[in-house]
Design a protein that fits this description.
Distance between the termini: 47 Å
CATH architecture of the largest domain: 2-Layer Sandwich
Number of domains: 2
CATH topology of the largest domain: Uridine Diphospho-n-acetylenolpyruvylglucosamine Reductase, domain 3
GO molecular function, one term: oxidoreductase activity
Organism: Piscinibacter sakaiensis
Oligomer: single chain
InterPro entries: CO_DH_flav_C (IPR005107), CO_DH_flav_C_dom_sf (IPR036683), Diverse_Substr_Oxidored (IPR051312), FAD-bd_PCMH (IPR016166), FAD-bd_PCMH-like_sf (IPR036318), FAD-bd_PCMH_sub1 (IPR016167), FAD-bd_PCMH_sub2 (IPR016169), Mopterin_DH_FAD-bd (IPR002346)
Number of helices: 12
Enzyme class: oxidoreductase
EC number: 1.2.99.2
Largest sheet: 5 strands, antiparallel
Length: about 260
């Protein structure tokens, strides 16, 4: 690990003031610290957001579930408000990593890191969420740009994410058993504007499965999702699964997600 200056501000203003030059925000640290230990990442300054209480919390605001950026996964999973208004999000959070990861990892850290196999990006894209920062709001459809790449500008701080409450939704993933990251994860949401299907773990970034969306808009059934043959072009291939296998699993996981959504 390279040397760095560590700061832990008490409020958001202090965090923004410290974000000068080669600085990085530290949320849960579940990805960043590991990358720094391996010397895959380095910064002159780390700004620990753990002391910024205003960035934590959950509330239901009209038709939206609003989650503060520094809210741990475990808090989202355990929240009675989230379980009542948007159970798919609570279940997604409860399936991330292990208890240690869920108690340290945060929503804001997850989406800012934009790991291609992370679970939360599928909820942001699948629900058409809005990402709030200290400078602006960013539509979920515009937030994830590529492999570990987002629309965030240098020094921009994610403060919260607003998830619209859908008519029905569910998230199902085929997980890597050691890490519990998604080899293929699918978030399906039936909304007033149509069905949205977001896929994680299958490409360099989360994406919407348009062919499955079209099939489900015509017939919101597990059979309709499973009948779609997703192309293998651009799909990840590694020691865990071939591109063809992952492509096939997208339709299978989508079908299971629809079944879970209908069962609520």
């Amino acid at each position: 690990m390279y040397t760095f200056d560590y700061q832990r501000p008490a409020d958001q203003a202090g965090a923004l003031a410290a974000a000068q030059g080669d600085a990085r925000y530290l949320a849960g640290g579940q990805s960043l610290i590991q990358a720094m230990k391996l010397r895959l990442s380095s910064s002159e300054r780390l700004i620990d957001l753990g002391g910024v209480a205003a960035l934590k919390g959950i509330r239901v605001d009209g038709g939206n579930v609003v989650v503060g950026a520094m809210t741990p996964h475990a808090a989202v999973a355990a929240s009675a408000e989230v379980r009542r208004a948007l159970p798919a999000l609570a279940e997604l959070a409860g399936g991330i990593g292990d208890p240690a990861v869920r108690n340290m990892g945060t929503l804001g850290g997850s989406i800012a890191n934009a790991d291609p196999a992370a679970c939360y990006p599928s909820a942001v894209l699948g629900l058409g969420a809005t990402v709030h920062t200290d400078r602006r709001t960013i539509a979920g459809d515009d937030f994830f740009l590529g492999l570990y790449e987002t629309a965030l500008q240098p020094g921009e701080l994610v403060t919260a994410v607003s998830f619209p409450v859908p008519e029905k939704a569910a998230y199902v993933k085929f997980k890597q058993p050691a890490s519990r990251f998604a080899l293929v994860g699918v978030f399906v949401a039936k909304t007033a504007g149509g069905v949205r299907v977001a896929v994680t773990g299958a490409k360099g970034s989360v994406f919407r499965a348009t062919p499955i969306e079209q099939a489900l808009n015509a017939s919101f059934t597990p059979e309709a999702a499973k009948a779609v043959a997703m192309p293998a072009d651009g799909i990840n291939a590694d020691l865990h699964a071939s591109a063809e296998y992952r492509a096939a699993m997208i339709s299978v996981m989508a079908g299971r997600a629809v079944a879970a959504a209908l069962a609520r």
